[in-house]
Design brief:
With about 325 residues, the chain is of the alpha/beta class. The chain has a single domain, classed as TIM Barrel. Helices cover about 35% and strands about 15% of the residues. It contains 10 helices and 13 strands. The protein has helices at about 45-50, 115-125, 135-140, 140-150, 170-190, 205-215, 235-250, 260-275, 295-305, 315; strands at about 15, 35, 75, 85, 100-105, 130, 155, 195, 220, 225, 250-255, 280-285, 315-320. The strands form 3 sheets. Strands 3, 5, 6, 7, 10, 11, 12 and 13 form an 8-stranded mixed beta sheet that branches. Helix 7 (about 235-250) links the parallel strand 10 (about 225) and strand 11. The longest helix is centred in the middle third of the chain and has 19 residues, at about 170-190. It is globular and about 50 Å long. It starts with 14 loop residues before the first strand and ends with a strand. Pfam families: Polysacc_deac_1. Is involved in generating a small heat-stable compound (Nod), an acylated oligomer of N-acetylglucosamine, that stimulates mitosis in various plant protoplasts. This is Chitooligosaccharide deacetylase. GO terms for molecular function: hydrolase activity, acting on carbon-nitrogen (but not peptide) bonds; metal ion binding.
Amino acid sequence: MRIATGLLVAGVVSVGVAVTAFAQSPPRSAKAPQAIAAAPQAAAPAAAAAAPLPPPAPAKAACANPDALGVGRVVEIDTTGGPGFGFEHFKQLDFLRDKEVVLTFDDGPWPVNTPSVLKTLADECTKAIFFPIGKHATYHPEILKAVAAAGHSIGSHTWSHANLNNKKLTEQQQKDEIEKGFSAVKWALGSAPSPFFRFPALQHPPAMVTYLGTRNVAMFSCDLDSFDFKAGKPEKIVETVMSKVDKLGKGIILMHDFQKHTAEALPTLLRRLKAGGYKVVQMKAKAPVATIAEYDEALAKETKLPTVSSRPLNSVVQTISE
């Protein structure tokens, strides 16, 4: 939990969003430039005959709920160089359009609460990003596998939820928390997760921001915090999120699938977002994270687990489905 401080490809890419990963910070109200991709040229008959046909795009799964919130568009993230998202800390990449939100959940996987969150997301045919704690992933790998099976993006939130800004931690211990967390999530899933990372308590030590850049891991802050870990009842979470998102008009929403009240609040919250005209953007990584073998092996040995074997915005964030 953080403290107070802090569908599918169907044909060609239709829209690219462009901004520079490490450019000057634009004003908060600035719109990210958009470039409409030109229709593909008709291929010459000889070339068409010679070139193999691409595999058909997978069919979009039918949504049983005609009034579902759904997914407005899917964007693919190139995490080279460690781009940052969320205006609370990172102001270079403002790719969200008005009335668009990204749903994010920290601190899972956890019994009862995470499955409840998954059910609500499935009922609303929508997607989110999950930032699990490494230890929790080793406790409940079956729950994290269910998150992946439902098509959500999965990153990491350190091994033990240590505040990496703690002056008692050495730089090596900070790196250990990051790398061990990714290795634990990889073990739980049986494959590497997305190179998406959120700092506990949204505390960003400059050295670790630089380190994640060298590791090509995208960092996620938020645009608005639900403060669900402080809420005494689910209704408070709904009101907090809706008041903030209505004020901003869009944003990356931080919540926790570890929290009981969040799971209880989510059905109402998603209905309110739908009623307010908001659309969910699903963020996917261009490639999985490259975990470090020594951490994979050390984790397996320590826990007795089997060994688990500056750029334009359209090069960082690319719409792949609307």
